[in-house]
Amino acid sequence: MTNPLISKLERFTRLSSDERVTLDALASRKLRRIRSREHLIHEGDRLTCVNLIVVGWAHSYKVLADGRRQIVAFLLPGDLCDPHGYILNESDHSIAAVTPLTVAQLSPEEFEALNSPRLVQALRWDALVTSAIQREWTVNIGQRSALERTAHLILELFHRLESIGPINAKGYDFPIRQTEMADALGMTAVHTNRMLQILRKEHLIDLGDKHLAIPDLAALECLAMFNPNYLHLQHEGHHLDAKD
Amino acid sequence: MTNPLISKLERFTRLSSDERVTLDALASRKLRRIRSREHLIHEGDRLTCVNLIVVGWAHSYKVLADGRRQIVAFLLPGDLCDPHGYILNESDHSIAAVTPLTVAQLSPEEFEALNSPRLVQALRWDALVTSAIQREWTVNIGQRSALERTAHLILELFHRLESIGPINAKGYDFPIRQTEMADALGMTAVHTNRMLQILRKEHLIDLGDKHLAIPDLAALECLAMFNPNYLHLQHEGHHLDAKD
DNA sequence: CGGGTAATTGACCCGGGTCAACAGCAGTGG
DNA sequence: CCACTGCTGTTGACCCGGGTCAATTACCCG
User: Fold this and answer.
1) Average pLDDT per run of 10 along chain A, which is 244 residues long?
2) Residue A43's domain spans which residues?
3) CB of B88 within 8 Å of any CB in chain A?
4) Tell me, what CATH number does A92's domain have?
């Protein structure tokens, strides 16, 4: 039951115990509970704080004038919603809960007080990875076929989940609906369903009842042409590691 | 002939003359010239500095194992290539010149010396806008039809160009080739060509000889369902404006 | 004049969208 | 306890937007 933000940042650099205490404190104060499907942010809102996802999954999305929706990101435990976004007048996207959610609200002052050199670098690394993920989504939707695309999203979520929590040999909770996957992948729910069926039939995924397992990771990564380099999970900030 | 980075940042907040002098100095030292098509960064390279585009256009892209290429961004004068990217071990994308390029190489130390409170906020704003653009590309490729998508890209570049230089009533230099537009839009060059023909026939764009004009901006924005909010160009940091 | 790159056009085809029906299941109220 | 409703997932039949392939034109630039 470790703090997922700490787990994630320590994929970059080992934090000091002081830093861990600070982050733990922030993740347990000013908690807000949000029901499934409810909104955290509406497009056009002013952002008054940085929301840290503590428990549950969310997604952010944009809608076109005629109602078409594109999910632009999934937010997992340990993810920050729009760090520094409070310097803008209004949010350019909406954020809604996929599951019941617990978020910690960090005021701009609290967020900017995370200013130890190591934490600053770790939070910058997190922001760079977030950007890299958004780039990869562009590649995914722009170039991969429906089957590859579906597999790639599953793999990305798999790797991101792995870096925030203990690995469960039996798989992962995977609470997103097919309509949400579809809107994230730029395809229809019907076709998403068919792609998932193929992946199941080929024994590349074991997905059901909001639970996912990947029996043959290498095969799925090969199919999706998945290259994890964009997640920058190789302890890239090891030279900053805390000693204690 | 003003510094395009200054023009851009002043869409957020008015800089002090000291800050403008500092940015001008950085944009005229350690210049590097790059021929059209040449690479600035290869995927996998370690980033040793922050490149500031001073003159010319570039694009960044990723390639899949089988050669498919997705352009993930166009870089215009005043754009920074991967600010803070030097904290990563390696770049997850490549950057290449679209036209002959002049870039200023900022060392990490020089870049981090841009630490006046106002500049820090302005650079954060720029990074937030860059992220918002990448999100919008996801929406564009995921949800818009080929025609809407083509129009949207043209409009985005139009607005970004406007914010870095004087408006030219006769239009803009628009040096990208149709194959590049195609790879940015996740479609084929053949189809991109057909979409451009439609836009020309409908008198929504006037494009030829590397030069673009938009005779009826409102009509094109309507077709593309273009909402400029994600570019955050409304002088959102006015409360930070310098007095001098 | 020749060679290479970019734009254009036509003919054909397929991946994924659309539409519609149906099944499974959880919640809810009588 | 069961009927009813609504949401999610599943399947089938049909169709179209955009891809593929190939040929042609239009420029540069040497």
Assistant:
1) 91 96 94 94 96 97 96 97 96 97 96 96 98 98 98 97 79 93 98 98 93 95 97 91 84
2) 4-240
3) yes
4) 2.60.120.10
